[in-house]
Design goal:
By secondary structure, the protein is an alpha/beta fold. 48% of the residues lie in helices and 9% in strands.
Length: 470
């Protein structure tokens, strides 16, 4: 708190300072050159190849995966339909954590917004009550949540399902910035343990889950003075299950403590989070102070600087691999759609085999849906298609799915073929096994031309057998 008051005084003094005094005060600001270098903001990108690859990806999705989605109503099972905006969207970096831990200050620091009219508001009290999306635009402007949800070209249109109360708490900020050309930041309201979810006026946990599911990198930020874990934070970490590879835990404001105290706080943070993260290798914890002003004297400056550069390298890796991650995401989605189509096909086939002239359709299908193992529905998928059992959806979900969609409303896969369009199953299998891996290989080869050079391939020459005597 004492450091925060001193910085507030510093900012107010800066506004009234003479040019000579400003030069002295500017020396208190931290050097930002390592941000520019690590994130390669000065490098020019060839956007033509990236746009062409995205166009191919959209074409594969629309021609090979989406038809089966619609034919078997996959969206009603998973509540997730991929839009063009989601395919073309930039990587998303999500900031989570308790209130007043420095999430907004960290975004201001990364974008260089401090002491400008466009910086995110920060303070010692809970200041961020909205979900704030900071994205690239030709000019600086704010966008209301209702407008963001109504724009189909963006990836935020599905947020309409959380209601008008939430859309009033959603705001977008557009600005021309080199980093925002490659990534989008999302600042979230701080977790307040003594506040119930209902008091927010919208389903806070469900909204967080929506952003978590779509985030490429998740920064969970902590303050050395706010390490207590309550019910809302426990719920947040339950929602992060399965996303451990995307999580980066940040112990912010580390220069506010002496080295010995910092070591104790670091251990206390691990002790608090250990029951919440059930993985063999816990997420990496970065210890530094992410704001524009210089580190406090007599602290581990070199350590904090290395930690900051390491975190920036993680962020840059996500940016560099954004297209590969997008292709992998679409392929994983295609695998799930394919499994869903095969399961529905098996349910339809079993229903038709069990039906007779005197059978009651409702009783026949009730027997199938109540005990699918009796009819080898899930086991037959594993046996015939080499699908991993870990990719199979929950069988209880199909009880609800067929409660809304009668089994008689679906055709078998063998009937989902046309002379011009081909078969749905053949197209989606080709996309999963050939088209998407081929697109990924073409991107990797263009990134690493050495692998496709004459030295690596021999330019068509017949390779020599080293184990054969001449």
């Amino acid at each position: 708190m004492k450091g925060l008051v001193s910085v507030c005084c510093f900012v107010s003094v800066l506004a009234l300072a003479t040019p000579e005094e400003e030069e002295v005060l500017d020396s208190i600001l931290r050097d930002r050159s390592h941000i520019e270098e690590t994130l390669r903001l000065a490098a020019e990108e060839s956007s033509g190849d990236y746009a062409a690859a995205l166009l191919r990806l959209r074409k594969i999705y629309h021609n090979s995966i989406r038809p089966m989605e619609h034919a078997y109503k996959y969206n009603e099972l998973r509540q997730h339909e991929i839009s063009d905006g989601e395919i073309t969207s930039k990587p998303m970096v999500l900031f989570l954590g308790p209130w007043s831990v420095g999430k907004s200050s960290m975004i201001n620091y990364l974008l260089g917004l401090q002491d400008t009219p466009y910086q995110l508001y920060t303070g010692a009290e809970p200041t961020t009550s909205e979900f704030t999306v900071i994205m690239h635009g030709e000019k600086i402007r704010s966008v209301e949540g209702i407008v963001m949800a109504a724009d189909s070209s963006r990836s935020f249109s599905p947020l309409e399902k959380f209601g008008q109360n939430f859309l009033e708490k959603l705001i977008g900020i557009e600005m021309p910035h080199k980093l925002l050309e490659r990534v989008t930041f999302v600042d979230t309201p701080g977790i307040i343990e003594n506040r119930k979810q209902q008091e927010r006026g919208y389903p806070f946990n469900d909204v967080c889950q929506w952003f978590i599911d779509r985030a490429d990198l998740i920064f969970v930020v902590f303050d050395p003075t706010k390490l207590d874990v309550g019910l809302e934070l426990e719920m947040l970490f339950r929602q992060l299950k399965g996303r451990e590879s995307q999580i980066r835990i940040i112990l912010n404001k580390a220069d506010s403590l002496a080295t010995q105290d910092l070591m104790r706080v670091y251990g206390a943070l691990f002790w608090s989070l250990a029951p919440l993260i059930n993985v063999t290798e816990p997420p990496r914890v970065y210890v530094s102070s992410f704001w524009p002003y210089d580190y406090a004297p007599n602290t581990s400056r070199e350590l904090f600087k290395r930690e900051e550069v390491s975190l920036l390298e993680d962020l840059n890796q996500v940016i560099e691999n954004r297209l590969e991650n997008k292709i992998a995401f679409i392929r994983q989605h295609g695998i799930r759609v394919r499994i869903h189509g095969l399961l529905v096909d098996r349910y339809v086939q079993t229903f038709k085999e069990k039906m007779s002239f005197f059978s009651d359709p409702e009783l026949v299908f009730k027997e199938i849906i109540d005990d699918p193992d009796k009819f080898y529905i899930f086991k037959s998928i594993l046996a015939k298609t080499n699908v991993s059992k870990f990719d199979l959806p929950n069988r209880d979900a199909y009880r609800d799915f067929f409660g809304i969609n009668p089994v008689t409303s679906f055709k078998q896969l063998s009937a989902q073929c046309s002379y011009m369009g081909g078969c749905l199953l053949d197209k989606i299998e080709k996309a999963i096994t050939e088209d998407l891996p081929g697109l990924l290989s073409s991107i990797n080869s263009s990134k690493n031309p050495i692998l496709s050079s004459c030295e690596a391939t021999g330019c068509g020459e017949k390779p020599k057998n080293r184990y054969r005597r001449n």
